[in-house]
Write a sequence for this structure.
DNA sequence: AACACTGCCAACCGCCGGGAT
DNA sequence: TATCCCGGCGGTTGGCAGTGT
């Protein structure tokens, strides 16, 4: 099955009424496009970004004449239009790295993606949900088609709590990193080993690197192996 | 051939943090 | 200081296409 081809179905356009009443503001209606992007929209977006750069997404959306919200433009750019994006065919090497990084970081898809050049957090998340989570736990039922609708936050789980608690630490990368992922009793969700890392600031500093740094990967794998031996 | 089921991807949603006002 | 706005993030879902019955 080929999933790389762009799909450009008919755009559903409808009136979205912002929740201005809640915000105590006057009610405003605005036509915005939602759903799959058309080739024409892609072209307009790329043109504007080529001139103004990928920032100020609201302005980009307006300048491109797209009836899209800035968020949607950002997502489209980051996940699809951005240069040097690799699509499909996750290599064994990449898969191994994803597994190791996930063991270390949990569902921090953007951080994991930052270590895989040309891969997006969305792609890695999708790959994890459709391939790797099943590999780790073949009995696991796919999470899709959940009955709930509205509100994307699930009840906070152990791992989520722990990951959230370290979020800021990892983000500003100034404090020693502690990832004490949950170890659970038998029959629970797959457990992650706990570890404490007096990580030096540079170790998780991805900000100054443009692409996959194999030296970093080697360091990471060494670090990871050392930790597991400990 | 027709239908149901499943896999996968793209895109949306709500939450959150940080900067601007 | 309080509030608003924007961008980033992870979770979730709609819908197409392939596969099974």
């Amino acid at each position: 099955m080929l999933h790389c081809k762009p799909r450009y179905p008919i755009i559903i356009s409808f009136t979205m009424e912002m929740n201005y009443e809640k915000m105590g503001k006057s009610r405003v209606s605005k036509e915005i496009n939602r759903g799959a992007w058309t080739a024409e929209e892609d072209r307009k977006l790329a043109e504007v970004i080529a001139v103004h750069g990928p920032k100020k997404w609201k302005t980009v959306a307006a300048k491109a004449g797209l009836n899209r919200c800035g968020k949607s433009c950002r997502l489209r750019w980051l996940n699809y239009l951005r240069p040097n994006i690799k699509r499909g065919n996750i290599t064994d090497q990449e898969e191994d790295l994803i597994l190791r990084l996930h063991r270390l970081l949990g569902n921090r898809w953007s951080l994991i993606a930052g270590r895989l050049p040309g891969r997006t957090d969305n792609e890695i998340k999708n790959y994890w949900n459709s391939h790797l989570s099943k590999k780790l736990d073949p009995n696991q039922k796919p999470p899709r088609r959940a009955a709930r609708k509205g509100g994307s936050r699930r009840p906070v789980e152990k791992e989520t709590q722990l990951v959230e608690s370290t979020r800021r630490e990892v983000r500003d990368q100034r404090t020693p990193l502690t990832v004490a992922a949950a170890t659970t009793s038998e029959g629970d969700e797959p457990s992650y080993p706990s570890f404490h890392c007096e990580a030096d600031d540079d170790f998780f500093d991805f900000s100054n690197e443009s692409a996959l740094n194999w030296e970093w990967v080697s360091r990471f794998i060494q670090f990871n192996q050392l930790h597991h031996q400990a």
Observations:
- Confidence is low (pLDDT under 50) at residues 1-30, 142-212 of chain A.
- The longest helix of chain A spans residues 121-136.
- Strands of chain A lie at 12-17, 29-34, 177-180, 194-197.
